[in-house]
DNA sequence: TGTAATGTTTACCAACCGGTCAAATTATCA
DNA sequence: TGATAATTTGACCGGTTGGTAAACATTACA
């Protein structure tokens, strides 16, 4: 009998494990490059190296595949923000959050683009995740930042917009990679880009652009 | 005789003017929401309130429509950067650039998303514009910033990454609008958002997060 | 080893895709 | 007004889309 995926309450076959892995990897490749509507099941099957009906045996619809992919990736994606530690030194924490986010933009650009595509097109598939788990996590960390500001450990600022600023500046290097490369030209497209970006952003967020005599840091 | 669009060397009819306007408006709506591949000609025709063959009478292909739209919008989009004045006060110039970009994110979010979609998906249709006019303009303004830094008027920093940071933080409010709304919740989604964002960003770029006694500014 | 569950493939479908065509309609202007 | 050019429409085309049906192959396991 053909058991639909949802009904598998028991353990998964070795084959299932392997194929689902290959499919989600291919789905990440295609969805991140073209968005949900722009991606085709045929293309994903092709990248995964299997026939379309075979792929649809593991994920019955394009939508189910996309959802499974989002579920798997979202958790990892929020890890750096979770690591944000209320007890740590504020400047150090923000610094290493920036660095971690930048590393993720460098090492997992497809994941970044997956979400960017989704949110950009109105987040029709992940609205719940945004308003639920994401908002709760951000609320929690925003409270931490607010406390730091109140205690005079960092400048008074809106914690939400601070988080937005860190997200946008770091993910920019994944989402707008083509533009960054085009503007920087051939020379600066190598590995050094991320080091330059890290140095600039850490400096920006800590000291701004004001001229200053080697701040306390 | 049916004159293809390209052959119109003479002045354009009133009808042509109106219809092309309506089509590009509809195309902006649809392309910005779904990206090139995700958009359909039928949908654009529907939004424009005309039949598909009628639309294709004015723009012979989906591609031509997209190109015309990009051409029309790109110039306007780069205006704020052009206004960047080498002779002005550096901090003031950067401040008002941020403000102008933020105003564009607020007033023309669809234009922002049009480019975001395009770049995100590898910029297959605007690679030339990025490597040509865009790069040249950025190079020019980066030189201005570098001169300011050299003269000690602002902190020493990589001018390219500074421009990227301004682009990403401001356009974030257009491109990731859904996420911003979801995180901020109902209360803060009104007009005040942009005022908060402006205040935060101007502060961030000028002073950073370091605690400071009312800087010179 | 046998057999039932799992996995894979071929052939196919209706709906939709970008785009064409010729006929019908409307605007322009001598 | 009439004829000519510009515009609009409905019917249609080949290719692609997400997804299905059923036969076939393979695996797991008693």
TrEMBL record, chains A, B:
<dbReference type="GO" id="GO:0003700">
    <property type="term" value="F:DNA-binding transcription factor activity"/>
</dbReference>
<dbReference type="InterPro" id="IPR036271">
    <property type="entry name" value="Tet_transcr_reg_TetR-rel_C_sf"/>
</dbReference>
<dbReference type="GO" id="GO:0000976">
    <property type="term" value="F:transcription cis-regulatory region binding"/>
</dbReference>
<keyword id="KW-0238">DNA-binding</keyword>
<feature type="DNA-binding region" description="H-T-H motif">
    <location>
        <begin position="40"/>
        <end position="59"/>
    </location>
</feature>
<dbReference type="InterPro" id="IPR001647">
    <property type="entry name" value="HTH_TetR"/>
</dbReference>
<dbReference type="Pfam" id="PF00440">
    <property type="entry name" value="TetR_N"/>
</dbReference>
<dbReference type="Pfam" id="PF08362">
    <property type="entry name" value="TetR_C_3"/>
</dbReference>
<dbReference type="InterPro" id="IPR013573">
    <property type="entry name" value="Tscrpt_reg_YcdC_C"/>
</dbReference>
<dbReference type="InterPro" id="IPR050109">
    <property type="entry name" value="HTH-type_TetR-like_transc_reg"/>
</dbReference>
<dbReference type="GO" id="GO:0045892">
    <property type="term" value="P:negative regulation of DNA-templated transcription"/>
</dbReference>
<protein>
    <submittedName>
        <fullName>TetR/AcrR family transcriptional regulator</fullName>
    </submittedName>
</protein>
<feature type="domain" description="HTH tetR-type">
    <location>
        <begin position="17"/>
        <end position="77"/>
    </location>
</feature>
<dbReference type="InterPro" id="IPR009057">
    <property type="entry name" value="Homeodomain-like_sf"/>
</dbReference>
């Amino acid at each position: 009998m053909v058991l639909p995926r949802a009904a598998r309450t028991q353990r998964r076959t070795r084959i299932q494990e392997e194929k689902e892995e290959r499919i989600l990897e291919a789905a990440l490749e295609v969805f991140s490059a073209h968005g949900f509507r722009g991606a085709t099941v045929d293309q994903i099957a092709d990248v995964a190296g299997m026939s379309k009906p075979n792929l649809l045996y593991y994920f019955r619809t394009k939508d189910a595949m996309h959802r499974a992919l989002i579920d798997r990736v979202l958790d990892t994606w929020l890890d750096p923000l979770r690591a944000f530690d209320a007890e740590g030194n504020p400047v150090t924490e923000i610094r290493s959050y920036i660095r971690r986010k930048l590393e993720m933009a460098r090492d997992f650009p497809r994941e970044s683009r997956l979400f960017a595509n989704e949110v950009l097109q109105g987040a029709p598939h992940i609205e719940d995740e945004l308003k639920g788990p994401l908002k709760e996590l951000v609320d929690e960390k925003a409270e931490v930042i607010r406390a730091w500001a109140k205690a005079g450990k960092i400048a008074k600022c809106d914690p939400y917009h601070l988080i937005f600023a860190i997200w946008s500046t770091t993910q920019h290097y994944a989402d707008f990679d083509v533009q960054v490369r085009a503007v920087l030209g051939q020379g600066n497209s190598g590995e050094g880009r991320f080091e330059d970006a890290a140095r600039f952003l850490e400096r920006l967020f800590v000291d701004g652009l004001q001229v200053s005599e080697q701040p306390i840091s």
